[in-house]
Design a protein that fits this description.
Blueprint: H1 6-15, E1 25-31, E2 42-46, E3 57-60, H2 66-72, E4 76-78, H3 80-87, E5 95-97, H4 103-106, H5 110-113, H6 131-140, E6 143-147, E7 153-160, H7 165-182, H8 188-191, H9 196-199, E8 206-208, E9 212-214
Parallel strand pairs: 3-4, 3-5
Antiparallel strand pairs: 1-7, 2-6, 8-9
């Protein structure tokens, strides 16, 4: 582990070839100063540089809209057949999208999707009014989802190995700005859920192996 600034961390990542694989990912890690037993830290962030992520999208929609959603880019769409298959153990997808109107029917598989963190939720940007736009965002790799767990630990994939240092830092900047805006008011440390970087300027990025950078 090396204490340094985000800029220096990106340079060290290249110098020591931390991401040797062509399809490797750069991951951001931080610990928030927040009591997760009282409130949650969860949401989405639109980063300027999309990641090359092969995400399988299940779009919960009325059965008469199946073809329309498939044409928009969804891998699987509908409600009757997906619910039946999920109840039989099928989990051939990475993200589920739904509208508020269809959620009562999606609740039939909540016990299956919930523990696997696949249940559509407004906070994660997966319960939306415009399914076509949500499908495009999910497939484009610009929609980054974050969620704090445990003692406030939060991690998110912010870049591909092919990204330049500038792109890595720009995506990191957008995520950190989103976290600072969304931090709970009741969090300790002077009125906000703070990352190590905000408590110890200019930051203490940590570089870990297997294509991950930690903050």
């Amino acid at each position: 582990r090396v204490a340094t600034t985000p800029f220096q961390a990106a340079r060290l990542m290249r110098a020591f070839d931390v991401v040797p694989e062509k399809d490797g990912k750069v991951e951001f890690w931080t610990r928030l100063n927040v009591d997760l037993t009282r409130e949650s830290v969860r949401g989405t962030c639109h980063v300027p540089h999309g990641l090359d992520m092969k995400i399988r999208v299940l779009c919960f929609c009325p059965d008469d809209e199946i073809e329309e959603m498939l044409a928009a880019g969804a891998d699987v769409a509908g409600i009757s057949e997906p619910v039946r298959r999920i109840n039989q153990g099928w989990l051939g997808f990475d993200r589920c999208l739904a509208t508020p109107a269809i959620m009562p029917q999606v609740m039939k598989v909540a016990k299956v999707l919930g523990p696997r963190k696949l249940m559509p939720n407004p906070k994660s940007g997966t319960v939306v009014q415009n399914l076509k736009a949500a499908i495009k965002e999910a497939k484009g790799g610009t929609l980054l989802e974050y969620r704090a767990e445990g003692e406030g630990e939060l991690s998110a994939t912010i870049a591909d190995a092919s990204f330049s240092d500038a792109k890595v830092l720009e995506n990191l900047k957008f995520l950190v700005q989103t976290l600072l805006r969304a931090r709970p008011r009741a969090a300790g440390g002077g009125g906000g859920g703070e990352t190590d970087a905000t408590r110890k300027p200019p930051g203490t990025p940590l570089i870990g192996g297997k294509g991950q950078t930690e903050e």
